[in-house]
Specification:
By secondary structure, this protein is of the alpha/beta class. Helix content is about 30%, strand content about 25%. It folds into 2 domains: about 200 residues, Medium-chain alcohol dehydrogenases, catalytic domain (Quinone Oxidoreductase, Chain A, domain 1, Alpha-Beta Complex), CATH 3.90.180.10; about 130 residues, NAD(P)-binding Rossmann-like Domain (Rossmann fold, 3-Layer(aba) Sandwich), CATH 3.40.50. Helix 7 links the parallel strand 13 and strand 14. Helix 3 crosses helix 4 and helix 3 packs across helix 9. Bound molecules: adenosine-5-diphosphoribose (APR) and zinc ion (ZN). This is S-(Hydroxymethyl)glutathione dehydrogenase / alcohol dehydrogenase.
């Protein structure tokens, strides 16, 4: 649990019993995402005390009145449950559902009785969560929980950015900046889409092997030589698609420069409110590039998580390289510091 400033701590909390249409889910695995870090360090303002965690899988332990998912079902948590009635949901953009704009919502109390908040309506770094049924996507019981958890954020976000937002076509060239769980998932999906070359970019040399294992054709260091190196591999043009998976204006600008004339830049990373992006107005016109963001992979988790789960079960999607290690809840603060240093792909808390 984060209280603002300093490391998060493990604390006892009290959650309500599941109300109408709600489920109590026993968490089995929860991944550490950069957005958790952004809430701890203030990049993404959030209310405290706050239970972190929004990328998780668990088993339904109790169904509230009217909830229909059977007890014992393995579910992947969805941090953007669609209301199915707002303008965005009715226009096939459930990832922008008007009901999901808050970074955290009140739920339960601390041991001292203070009102508690849970990240993105979930708060998954906990033995249990109480969530609306719409925030639970059933998946097969035999899907390994650590891999199932990643489907709920990094994998869905990365694969959706490639398939739904950018619609990468076979033979197109791709650059991916930032090789955490999200960027590596973009690489995996770009590979599956038949993209080539797939140029993986990071400041951390240690990401090289992870990137190549995920399907990148080249690893490039994010430094002064980057534009030249990318052009050398794309016939002097730049890439068809550049994906920004860091969440900073500097890397959005870098991605912008890597895209070819008429190419597309897809912003997957979530940056800070005061981190302003400056582009030349002439260049925006003349380069004819497209700049757009991909929220939750422009996806409908109810439809796409089961498809990804099946791909994992069939062996078509191998998520084992994404899991750098499983840890206990008490090790999560140290793992968040490792994430901040750019170490590993995904650290997953298991219960
Ligand atoms: N150029 C290239 N890579 C960079 C740079 C840079 N200037 N700065 C940082 N990186 C790399 C880090 O070394 C790290 O490998 O970006 C990667 C970010 O990985 P994670 O911290 O694991 O982040 P992840 O969980 O993948 O999320 C990425 O997507 O959902 C959003 O909020 C999330 O903005 C975050 C982004
Ligand atoms: Zn996330």
């Amino acid at each position: 649990m984060a209280r603002g400033g300093g490391d998060p701590r493990v604390e006892e909390v009290r959650l309500p019993a599941p109300g109408p249409g709600e489920l109590r889910v026993r968490i089995r695995a929860a991944g550490l995402c950069h957005s958790d870090l952004s809430m701890v360090n203030g990049t993404m303002p959030a209310p405290f005390p706050l239970v972190l965690g929004h990328e998780a899988a668990g088993v339904v332990a109790e169904a509230g009145p009217g909830a229909t998912v059977p007890v014992g079902t393995q579910v992947v948590l969805n941090w953007a449950p669609a209301c199915r009635t707002c303008w965005f949901c009715r226009h096939d953009e459930p990832w922008l559902c008007a009901a999901n704009t808050a970074p955290a919502v009140p739920r339960g109390v601390t041991a001292e009785g203070e009102p508690l908040h849970v990240t993105l309506g979930l708060g998954a770094f906990a033995e249990e969560v109480v969530i609306p049924q719409a925030a639970a996507v059933p998946v097969p019981a035999d899907l390994p929980p650590a891999q199932a958890a990643l489907l709920g954020c990094a994998v869905l976000t990365g694969s959706g950015a490639v398939r739904n937002t950018a619609r990468v076509a076979p033979g197109q060239s791709v650059a991916v900046l930032g090789l955490g769980g999200v960027g590596l998932s973009v690489i995996t999906a770009a590979r599956a889409a038949g993209a080539t070359p797939i140029l993986a970019v990071d400041v951390a040399e240690a990401k090289r092997d992870l990137a190549l294992a995920a399907g990148a054709t080249d690893f490039l260091r994010s430094d002064d030589t980057l534009s030249r190196e990318v052009r050398a591999r794309t016939g002097g043009l730049g890439v068809d698609h550049a994906f920004e998976c860091v969440g900073r204006s500097a890397t959005i600008r870098a991605a912008w420069r890597l895209a070819r004339r008429g190419g597309a830049v897809t912003v997957v990373g979530m940056g800070a409110k005061d981190d302003l992006l400056t582009l030349s107005a002439l260049d925006v016109f003349h380069s004819a590039r497209t700049l757009r963001s991909s929220v939750y992979g422009s996806s409908d988790p109810d439809r796409e998580v089961p498809v990804l789960a099946r791909a994992v079960a069939d062996g078509a999607l191998d998520l084992t390289p994404l899991v750098s290690g499983t840890i206990g809840l008490d090790e999560a603060p140290a793992a968040l510091r490792r994430l901040a240093r750019g170490e590993g792909a995904r650290w997953v808390v298991t219960f």
